[in-house]
Amino acid sequence: MRVQVCIIGGGPSGLLLSQLLHLQGIDTVVLERRSRDYVLGRIRAGVLESGMCDLLRRAGVGERLDAEGFVHNGTRISARGHDFRIDFKKLTDRTVTVYGQTEVTQDLYAARDAMDGKIIEEAEGVTIHEPTSDAPWVTYTKDGTEHRIDCDWIAGCDGFHGVSRQTIPQERRQEFEKVYPFGWLGILSRTPPVDHELIYSNHPRGFALCSMRNANLSRYYVQAPVDDKVEAWSDDRFWDELKRRIPEEAADKLITGPSIEKSIAPLRSFIAEPMRWGRLFLVGDAAHIVPPTGAKGLNLAASDVHYLSRALIALYAGDGDEGVETYSTQALARVWKASRFSWWMTSTLHSFPDQGDFGQRMQEAEIAYLEQSPAAQTALAENYVGLPY
Ligand code: FAD
Ligand code: DHB
């Protein structure tokens, strides 16, 4: 098979890139290691920046997002049992939308199917060949048979554990990493959310977050030791711990119920540079990971897709290769800023093993300053709703 762009990974970045390119007549194929059911079963991000919503609309997948997504004008922040609200709309004139990653992926698969997009699922042993030549190619095995795809460009959208980043020789890439000494235990429950907006809570027992997917589907997280086993956390233990960490008024009205998903995710900041090697581009989690605090992971994947799709569309339209040449620098500039914000949110809201009482009081002072300072609130709000592309 020959295509213009071979996309490795059928998560949100790969599907969105494929959709945006196809709409401009650029031929792509998506190679996904897992089955579609597996990809759609992963519960991940839930908060979309307005820039990502615009990109989804441009990709022709905004209809359900606009009908079913919940626009949030602000968020609540809590410390020492007291909470206050940051009004994104008033401070930045922008908002975020609560719409699950699962829904985004489902919409993208439906759009790709409607356009006869080529998606090869359960593609094993994907290997990139000669990415620094003018004629790169990719091989994979499906049902025991090896296949070859010749292409002009390869987009590595295959997440943190994919093959694309590893294809760049170690001496040609730099990696920056911080691993946090805790994880997030998250549950999904068919219960009404405790509030119409999210609550981010600092507490000496550890961070907690009240989030949601829709009017009868709640997503809650508590900071937990990263090596804890999910089995050690009965639903009752989870709800008790959550209630202890959030404002009393919220704890009193929290409606609990059986969890329908429960998992522990590690927290990590990671950035690989550069995001291009010859004719191979890295996109989304393949190049960078942020800790989830501040909901930037999926949104950063979307901004990478924005820069790369624009560059390739310009190139195939005969408008030059400047976008391709500057993709890595442009994408990384935004990646570093969003990583800084995620690191700051994580550092301010979580309990670190070695922080002591002094560290706890510093966090509380920082949050008290945030409550009183419109300048500090604006800094949080403009990062939360998303820096411009
Ligand atoms: P992915 O979604 O990882 O997609 C990559 C795809 O490539 C996958 O489908 C994978 O199966 C496929 N693949 C991998 N290797 C290969 C291969 N060798 N060949 C072919 N295909 C391959 N972000 C938030 O903002 N909020 C959250 O609450 C949040 N929670 C998260 C929880 C977890 C457990 C994880 C892992 C991430 C979470 N994130 C969250 C981050 C967010 O989900 C990611 O940033 C987002 O999924 C990135 O999209 P992507 O398409 O770049 O990568
Ligand atoms: C969610 C996850 C986040 O990391 C966050 O900051 C807000 C919401 C969520 O899964 O709903």
Automatic annotation (TrEMBL):
It holds the Pfam family FAD_binding_3. Residues 2-342 form the FAD-binding domain. GO terms for biological process: benzoate catabolic process. It comes from the Bacteria. Keywords: FAD, Flavoprotein, Monooxygenase, Oxidoreductase. The keyword Flavoprotein applies. GO terms for molecular function: 4-hydroxybenzoate 3-monooxygenase activity; FAD binding. This is 4-hydroxybenzoate 3-monooxygenase.
